[in-house]
């Protein structure tokens, strides 16, 4: 089950994350060492749970953003490695808590930690990783970086609660949805990119450029993620097609299809999402409506809109391989749908 | 159902928290204002959940420790108020997560947040409060205070996971149990008391004195709490007698009674705690064994031992009403059992 997503015309080359991976390779090895060290504990269950998720093959996009956004301003040292690791721990803690909140059984194609060790361990190991993240930030000693990342921690949690409040409510607008993804996803991308120039002690304009780049990249990334939930294959995605539908999560493809539909179709959506009637047959019907109303293609168009803002945010910065790699990541995040 | 706990001989006056309450009254009003402000959010569910717990009548012992341990060194200003609020938020976040982990239905005589708003909101609002706590610490701008409190956050979570690992294991020793309560409870008392001298910029010896006072007070406090679980009345305690027993939590009264019992009695404990056979009849029998083997009186004796260490930790400090109030709190924490 899935929806065919049309390729954008006139594009020859698939954008890749590889240039960013190559440029940050040496520093990412230090990040990976630090992840292992700081997820360690005499309490055996902690590294077990942490490593389950950490080793499950995420792209580590967020820490790469931190490394690149410091290195592009000539920064050398430890601070960006510690902050990149903090960012990844914040992300991992969020995933552990999310899986409890969403009652998910699969993530990246593997059983979630809560299915193996229980909700209790997932909540508490998440708390531990968050604590470790803050300890590393304190080691770095930059109050500006601490301010950016602690604010992000609050905002992310606020966004998750907001998502809970709008769940199963078909009257959610595109603006409500944007508030949710801005907080729960884009805020960490923005913080990850902003702390690079902070430790590199750039001027304010470079810091603002990276923050804006991260924020808009994060929005594009989440929009595409929400498309993939309806369009991807479980094997590629590491989760099941239609998970959001079954959980009654309101994402942009659904919002667009609902608002553009007939009264009868809106009743269908209310029954399926608000009424919790998310059967396989109803998912099939929902996919049909999403295709008819351009729910996926127009969500991708919105993602391109934010991608363009991210691109313009970096425009004033001098040309460099780092800048090129960060720009290519925008297209990579969006092209994932193909 | 409950156990009679003998009064200590030769004590006339019941120790009270009142002198500490009186001395910190003006600053605690500022803490309470800040709690309301920082638990606020446009996302309605956040203040609802937070205020449910915040308004439920806890003693606010931890923030009072922070205020007193700064004020006793002549500190005036905002920093101790912000740090006291951070400490209370860290504590509240832990309670929200604990209730999810323990599947508790009652706290301080009221339904837990998770029973009203669900586990999801409890996890996420806890995360939000933790984020807000760090933001306030960052506002204060003391890297030393940030170090102490972020380390406490990690250690608390580590202690909770350790508790999970030793749960339902009757071979848990008193030392294992002490490691758990040192991390999950005493570490925050220690941090709460240590950040006072930090913002007051005292010498290292005063800082160490308050840290040691907090750590040992926290141990005494938790030991007595664990006694109250078997000895208190639900109405006083705000929870049910025997909750720990029903959850298979190993606390010192049980450890002592198990280790001092006959082979037959040890089989009973294994069946009840490890086998999850925590019926009312078994609780009644457990209470009988705990009484026979002095499980409660000897746990209180252990609490007095740590109380004495806390008292000696403060001994070198000059006499003051603050010092007297902090010393009286030690006895207050222990005398709660009467």
From TrEMBL, chains A, B:
InterPro entries in the record: Isoprenoid_synthase_dom_sf, Polyprenyl_synt, Polyprenyl_synt_CS
CDD domains: Trans_IPPS_HT
GO BP: isoprenoid biosynthetic process
Enzyme class: transferase
Gene Ontology molecular-function annotations: all-trans-octaprenyl-diphosphate synthase activity; metal ion binding
Record keywords: Magnesium, Metal-binding, Transferase
EC number(s) from the headed UniProt entry: 2.5.1.90
Keyword Metal-binding assigned: yes
Cofactor: Mg(2+)
Catalytic activity: 5 isopentenyl diphosphate + (2E,6E)-farnesyl diphosphate = all-trans-octaprenyl diphosphate + 5 diphosphate
Family: Belongs to the FPP/GGPP synthase family.
Role: Supplies octaprenyl diphosphate, the precursor for the side chain of the isoprenoid quinones ubiquinone and menaquinone.
Protein name: Octaprenyl diphosphate synthase
Organism: Rhizobium quercicola
């Amino acid at each position: 089950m899935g929806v065919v997503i049309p390729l954008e015309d006139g594009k020859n080359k698939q954008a890749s994350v590889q240039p960013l991976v190559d440029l940050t390779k040496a520093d990412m090895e230090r990040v990976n060492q630090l992840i292992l060290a700081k997820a360690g504990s005499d309490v055996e269950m902690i590294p077990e749970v942490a490593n389950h998720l950490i080793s499950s093959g995420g792209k580590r996009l967020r820490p790469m953003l931190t490394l690149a956004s410091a290195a592009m301003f000539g920064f050398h040292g430890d601070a960006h490695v510690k902050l990149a690791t903090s960012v990844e721990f914040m992300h991992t803690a969020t995933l552990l808590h999310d899986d409890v909140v969403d009652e998910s059984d699969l993530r990246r194609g593997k059983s979630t930690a809560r299915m193996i060790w229980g909700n209790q361990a997932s909540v508490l190991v998440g708390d531990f990783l968050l604590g470790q993240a803050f300890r590393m930030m304190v080691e770095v000693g930059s109050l500006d970086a601490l301010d950016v990342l602690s604010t992000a921690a609050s905002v992310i949690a606020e966004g998750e609660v907001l998502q809970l409040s709008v769940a199963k409510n078909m009257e959610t607008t595109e603006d409500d949805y944007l508030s949710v993804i801005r907080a729960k996803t884009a805020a960490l991308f923005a913080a990850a990119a902003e702390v690079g120039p902070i430790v590199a002690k750039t001027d304010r304009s470079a810091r603002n450029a990276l923050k804006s780049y991260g924020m808009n990249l994060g929005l594009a990334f989440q929009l595409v993620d929400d498309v993939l939930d309806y369009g991807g294959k479980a094997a590629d995605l590491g989760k099941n097609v239609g998970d959001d539908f079954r959980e009654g999560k309101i994402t942009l493809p659904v919002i667009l299809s609902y608002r553009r539909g007939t009264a009868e179709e809106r009743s269908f959506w209310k029954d399926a999402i608000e009424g919790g009637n998310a059967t396989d047959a109803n998912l099939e019907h929902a996919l049909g409506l999403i295709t008819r109303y351009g729910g996926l293609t127009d969500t991708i168009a919105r993602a391109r809109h934010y991608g363009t803002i991210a691109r313009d945010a970096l425009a004033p910065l001098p040309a460099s391989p780092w800048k090129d790699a960060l720009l290519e990541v925008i297209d990579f995040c969006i092209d994932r749908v193909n």
